[in-house]
C-alpha cells in the first residue's frame, strides 16, 4: 500500500466514516521503491516490462528479502523510525548509488510518513479475523481481482507480468482464510482483448479497427493513462484463464464497443509447429511463435437499453453462444453500455 495515495483518496470523503480496514501485515511502498522501479525500467532498454513506476515490484521484492516494513510497524512511530533506518541501510548495501539521491532523505521521509501513519492508524485491523467472522456468520464475501490472469507472476506471460499472484485462489491466501464453500468464481472478460505495457499479444490490432475499439471503449490505463493495446477476443487465453482460476461463470463486458464492426473476429486456436493449440503454451517464446486461427462473425448493433439476453440482436446472441460453447462456461452477465443499469443479468430463457 502507498500511504500518500490512500490518504489522498480518503480526502475525497471529508467528514465521512469510510468503512476501510488495512491489514497489519500489508507492506508499505516507500520512495525507495519508486526510485528503484523507475530506474530499473529506464535501464531495461528494449526489454522494458511496462511497469506503472509506482514501486510495486521492488516492494514485493523487499517482502521476499524480509526487509520490508509492514503497516503494523508503520503506525508505531518508534518502531517505524528504527525499521526505516535499517531498511535504508539495507537498500544502500545493495545499491550504493542511492546514498545521495535527493528523494531518499530518511529524516524527511520519516517526518512526512509519520503524518500519514497518524491519519491511517484508525483503519488498522486483522482482515483475516474479520473475513473469518463474516464467513462464520454466513455472510456473503466478495473478492475483487485487480489484475488479469496473464499478469500472474507464475502462470502469466512471464516476464511481462505483475509482481504478485493474480489467480482467484490467491484471494484466499492473501486474505488469510481457507477456500469458501459454494464459492462462485466469476471470470470477467471484455468482448475483445486488451493489454497494457509490453509482452506478447497475438490478436493485437494495429489498424483503424484497433483504434476504434480503443477510443469507443475508452481503453486507457486507469493508473497511468497509457493507451491500452487492443485486439480480437482470444479464446485460447480465455480457456486457460478459466482452467487456472476455476471459473464457474463468465461476465462479458463492453459488448457494445463492437457495434458496427464488420466482420467481428475471434481467435479460436493457435497454429504452432503444425499443430493446433486450444490453450496458451507455457512460455513466451512458444507463444510468440504461434499464429492465431480466426473465426469471423457478422456485425451487430447492440441496444444499450436491452434488459434480457433475448433482446440482443441475433448475431450478438450467436457470438455469445459461441463463446459459451468454446469455453464450456455459461455467460451470466453481459454489459451493453458503461452505466450500471446497462447490464444484463442473464436468466434461463
Helix/strand/pairing class, anyone?
alpha/beta
CATH superfamily of the largest domain: Adenylosuccinate Synthetase, subunit A, domain 3
Q: Can you tell me the CATH topology of the largest domain? A: Adenylosuccinate Synthetase, Chain A, domain 3
Number of helices: 12
Overall number of structural domains: 2
The CATH architecture of the largest domain would be Alpha-Beta Complex
Radius of gyration: 23 Å
* Estimated helix fraction: 25-40%
Low-pLDDT runs? none
In spatial order, strands of the major sheet run: 3-7-11-12
Strand content: 5-15%
- What's the CATH first level of the largest domain? Alpha Beta
What is the typical, i.e. mean, pLDDT? 92
Topology, number of strands: 12
**Which H/E pattern describes the elements?**
HEHHHHHEHHEEHEEHEEEHEHEE
Distance between the termini: 45 Å
The gist of it:
With 349 residues, the protein is an alpha/beta fold.
Word description of this protein:
Helix content is 35%, strand content 14%. It has 349 residues and is of the alpha/beta class. The protein has two domains: 3-125, Adenylosuccinate Synthetase, subunit A, domain 2 (Orthogonal Bundle); 184-345, Adenylosuccinate Synthetase, Chain A, domain 3 (Alpha-Beta Complex). The chain has a four-stranded mixed beta sheet, with helices on one face. Strands 6, 8, 9 and 10 form a four-stranded mixed beta sheet that branches. Strands 1-2 form a two-stranded parallel ribbon. The protein starts with a helix and ends with a strand.
Amino acid at each position: 500500500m502507498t500511504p500518500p495515495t490512500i490518504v489522498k483518496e480518503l480526502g475525497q470523503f471529508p467528514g465521512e466514516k469510510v468503512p476501510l480496514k488495512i491489514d497489519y501485515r500489508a507492506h508499505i511502498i516507500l520512495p525507495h521503491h519508486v526510485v528503484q522501479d523507475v530506474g530499473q525500467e529506464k535501464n531495461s532498454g528494449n526489454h522494458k516490462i511496462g511497469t506503472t513506476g509506482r514501486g510495486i515490484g521492488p516492494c514485493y521484492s523487499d517482502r521476499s528479502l524480509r526487509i520490508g516494513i509492514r503497516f503494523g510497524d508503520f503506525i508505531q512511530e518508534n518502531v517505524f523510525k528504527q525499521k526505516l533506518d535499517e531498511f535504508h541501510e539495507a537498500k544502500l548495501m545493495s545499491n550504493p548509488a542511492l546514498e545521495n539521491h535527493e528523494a531518499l532523505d530518511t529524516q524527511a521521509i520519516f517526518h512526512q510518513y509519520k503524518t500519514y501513519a497518524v491519519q491511517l492508524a484508525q483503519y488498522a485491523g486483522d482482515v483475516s479475523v474479520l473475513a473469518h467472522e463474516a464467513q462464520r456468520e454466513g455472510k456473503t464475501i466478495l473478492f475483487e481481482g485487480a489484475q488479469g490472469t496473464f499478469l500472474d507472476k507464475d502462470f502469466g506471460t512471464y516476464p511481462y507480468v505483475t509482481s504478485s499472484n493474480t489467480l482467484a485462489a490467491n484471494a484466499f491466501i492473501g486474505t488469510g482464510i481457507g477456500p469458501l464453500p459454494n464459492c462462485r468464481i466469476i471470470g470477467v472478460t471484455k468482448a475483445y482483448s486488451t493489454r497494457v505495457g509490453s509482452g506478447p499479444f497475438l490478436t493485437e490490432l494495429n489498424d483503424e479497427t484497433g483504434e476504434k475499439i480503443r477510443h469507443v471503449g475508452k481503453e486507457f490505463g486507469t493508473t497511468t493513462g497509457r493507451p491500452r493495446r487492443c485486439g480480437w477476443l482470444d479464446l485460447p487465453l480465455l480457456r486457460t484463464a478459466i482452467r487456472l482460476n476455476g471459473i464457474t461463470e463468465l461476465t462479458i463486458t463492453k459488448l457494445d464497443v463492437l457495434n458496427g464492426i464488420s466482420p467481428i473476429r475471434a481467435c479460436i486456436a493457435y497454429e504452432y509447429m503444425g499443430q493446433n493449440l486450444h490453450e496458451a503454451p507455457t512460455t513466451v517464446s512458444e507463444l510468440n511463435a504461434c499464429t492465431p486461427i480466426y473465426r469471423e462473425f457478422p456485425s451487430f448493433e447492440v441496444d444499450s437499453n436491452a434488459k434480457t439476453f433475448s433482446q440482443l440482436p441475433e448475431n450478438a446472441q450467436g457470438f455469445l453462444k459461441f463463446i459459451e460453447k468454446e469455453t464450456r462456461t455459461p455467460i451470466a452477465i453481459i454489459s451493453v453500455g458503461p452505466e450500471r443499469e446497462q447490464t444484463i443479468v442473464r436468466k434461463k430463457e
